Amino acid sequence: MEILRQTTGCSRCEALPDAIAGPGRLFLWFPMRHAQGQAARHLESLGRGYRPLPAGDGLVAGLDGEEVHELARSLAGQLGPEQANDTRVLWTKGDEDPGFPDFPRVTSLWRFVAAGRAAWVRDLLAEGRITSHFQPIVEAADTSSVFGHEALLRGFEADETPVSPGQIFAAARETDLLFQVDLAARQSAIRQAVRHGLRTRIFINFTPASIYDPAYCLRSTVAAIVDSGLPPYLIVFEVIESERVDNLSHLESILAVYRQAGFRVALDDLGAGYSSLTLMSRIRPDFVKLDRELIRQVDQDPYKAVIAEKLLELARQLKIRVIAEGVETPGELAWLQARRADYIQGFLIAPPSAEPLRHPPRM
Questions:
Q1: Which one is predicted more confidently, 2 or 306?
Q2: For 161-189, what is the mean pLDDT?
Q3: Which of residues 51 and 270 earns the better pLDDT score?
Q4: N or C: which end of the chain has fewer CB within 10 A?
């Protein structure tokens, strides 16, 4: 635990790219000579000044930061998707030539354009416009007894208009800000749990692809929990997007850090595909969540019923506790109670809310 707290976290996960503003230069390197010629002619048609790079393998155009994304979109439209994806760009402030520290910022023209469209995500992070809502997880045998709360990311515009988490994560992937968004969501979950004085299990989602190096990326998350005073056993890190996990060794190294700190582990979407069963055998979670599509109308669909029943039986044999999520009807609840599911989560109990529900009704 102490080792995890000794240094600051990973700059890859915590640093935000600078906002593009003021005068500067856009450097462009092209996959082929004819693409460079095509771009040069397009710049001339727009009345934009440019010059070839000394080696003759690219162009540089001086312009103001407010214009750069509009110009990039125009160039990408002229070159087409494939050439725009293969063209490399770098924006630098002022008139200095790029140095070695600048080269990690070189990206594709296509991604640069996407980053311009989703600059609002960077602003959302920089201005702290992220919070967490909580959805209760209750005892299946007594739905008035809250076992835990799942923390769910929420964002809002400067005028407090809500922004859906789906929009945030989609834009984060487009702009290479997934590391920063996922970290902000974890930290918000901890901060809001402390603010509300929660002493239930707190389920915190994380995307394995958002953690670059567990030894460094997780330091700030672990330190935030330790500093919050929350007992480690109350924290459950939930692996989401399990269908996208293609590096099991990387995931295992992440979970090893969490477990070393005393936290618990949950696997989301069990029953959504074969990959989730493979993950269960490798990571051996403390909790599994039955996929909401499997739970939907499970009391009326004999095929779903057989699959769900076998998964419940399997989890019991492995001493893994089961959370059925997405429960929306009394029939689904009754079916799960009859088959001794451990916990229930879903809109039948309560939707996510800014104020954690502490006393749901018995059903």
A1: 306
A2: 88
A3: 51
A4: N
Q: Is 169 helix (H, G, I), strand (E, B) or coil?
A: helix
Output the six-digit token pair for 290: 């039955």
Contacts of residues 64-67 at CB distance under 8 Å and 24 or more positions apart, as own/partner, are 64/22, 64/23, 64/24, 65/19, 65/20, 65/21, 65/22, 65/23, 65/24, 65/91, 65/93, 66/21
Question: Which element (helix H / strand E) includes 168?
Answer: helix 165-174
Confidence grade of residue 66 (pLDDT, cut at 50, 70, 90): confident
Q: Which of 254, 256, 263 is nearest to 224 (CA)?
A: 263
Asked if 311 and 332 count as a contact pair (C-beta separation under 8 A), the reply is no
Residues 285-292 have a mean pLDDT of: 93
- The helix/strand/coil state of 85 is helix
Per residue in 114-130, pLDDT (tens digit) is 888 878 888 899 899 99
CA angle, residues 160, 162, 164, in degrees to nearest 5:
155
Q: Which of 115, 109, 144, 136 is nearest to 30 (CA)?
A: 109
The second-level CATH assignment, the architecture, of 12-117 is 2-Layer Sandwich (3.30)
Burial 179-204 (b: 16+ CB within 10 A, else e): bbbbbbbbbbbbbbbbeeebebbbbb
For residue 93, list its beta bridge partners: 24
How far is it, in rounded angstroms, from Cα 185 to Cα 154?
8
In the block, which residue shows the tokens 């070695």? 100
Give the list of residues 6+ apart from residue 168 with CB closer than 8 angstroms, or none: 121, 124, 153, 155, 181
* Region(s) of the chain under CATH 3.20.20.450: 123-344
For residues 45-51, give the mean pLDDT: 91
> For the ranges 27-41, 76-90, 106-120, which has the lowest average pLDDT?
106-120
Report how far residue 217's alpha carbon sits from residue 253's, in angstroms, rounded to the nearest whole number: 12
**Structure tokens given for 208:** 């394995």
pLDDT at 271: 64
In angstroms, rounded to a whole number, what is the distance separating the alpha carbons of residues 136 and 239?
A: 18
Fold classification of 123-344 (topology level) = TIM Barrel (3.20.20)
Distance in angstroms (rounded) separating the CA atoms of residues 336 and 363: 13
